[in-house]
Amino acid sequence: MFDILLLICLCLIAVSILACIYRIIKGTSMPDRVIALDTIGINLIAAIAIFSVLLHTRAFFEVILLIGILSFVGTIAFARFIERGVVIERKRDQ
Amino acid sequence: MNASVISEVIAGVFILIGTLFILFSSFGIIRLPDVYTRSHAATKSTTLGVLCTLLGAFLYFWITDGYISIRLLLGIFFVFLTAPVAGHLICRAAYVTNVEIVRDTAKQRPKAEREH
């Protein structure tokens, strides 16, 4: 019963990831696509948490932290690129 | 009721609530009209859904195994801290690069436009 509930939750998260993929393909502007990618990263965190409960293992908890950090860094880099044209700026005195 | 049934009920309720929040935010991502309303849907309710799901997993491992996972707590804290910041930066980038606003809110543009 509990396993069936967890599988249903995984299917619902897969549906929401498909919705984000629709927004990435059709998105009318560049920040739309970045928001959808960030949402996919956060949905993957939830999916990994449910999957580790389903398998009853503790081995995937580092993956949750890693995907959180990598999704944040990627989103910040894309935001800086859209806003200023570069990701890492040069020093002012050169 | 033994401990495993209790833990399954509590974790199941939290995980189901979190998954429903994530599903509703994906409906918002599809249906809302412009970037700012979409980021409103994507940032807030997805963050709440992920927090509920991670809390359900944390309580499940706490009740069944007696295992308090610091990594899951750090994951909750980090998602709670960084998701609004990422949404803010993306929305500011969209505003600076003149992505169009839906027509009803375009009358009230922020003050930063007048200074430039």
UniProtKB/TrEMBL annotation, chain A:
Chain segments annotated as transmembrane: 35-56, 63-82
Name of one Pfam family that matches: MrpF_PhaF
GO cellular component: plasma membrane
Subcellular location(s) of the protein: Cell membrane
A single GO molecular function term of this UniProt record: sodium:proton antiporter activity
InterPro entries listed in its UniProt record: MrpF/PhaF-like
Lipid bilayer topology: Multi-pass membrane protein
Chief location category: membrane
ATP-binding among keywords: no
UniProt keyword list: Antiport, Cell membrane, Ion transport, Membrane, Transmembrane, Transmembrane helix, Transport
NCBIfam families named in the record: PRK12600.1
PANTHER family found in the cross-reference section: NA(+)/H(+) ANTIPORTER SUBUNIT F1, NA(+)_H(+) ANTIPORTER SUBUNIT F
Similarity comment text for this entry: Belongs to the CPA3 antiporters (TC 2.A.63) subunit F family.
Protein name: Na(+)/H(+) antiporter subunit F
Organism: Halalkalibacter krulwichiae
Gene: mrpF_2
UniProtKB/TrEMBL annotation, chain B:
Molecular functions (GO terms): sodium:proton antiporter activity
Pfam families given in the database record: PhaG_MnhG_YufB
Main location: membrane
Domain of life: Bacteria
GO cellular component annotations of the record: membrane
Transmembrane intervals: 6-30, 42-63, 69-91
Tagged with keyword Phosphoprotein: no
InterPro entries for the chain: PhaG_MnhG_YufB
Subcellular location: Membrane
Keyword line: Antiport, Membrane, Transmembrane, Transmembrane helix, Transport
Membrane topology: Multi-pass membrane protein
Record-linked PANTHER family: ANTIPORTER SUBUNIT MNHG2-RELATED
Family: Belongs to the CPA3 antiporters (TC 2.A.63) subunit G family.
Name of the protein in question: Na(+)/H(+) antiporter subunit G
Source organism (scientific name): Halalkalibacter krulwichiae
Lineage, highest ranks first: Bacteria, Bacillati, Bacillota, Bacilli, Bacillales
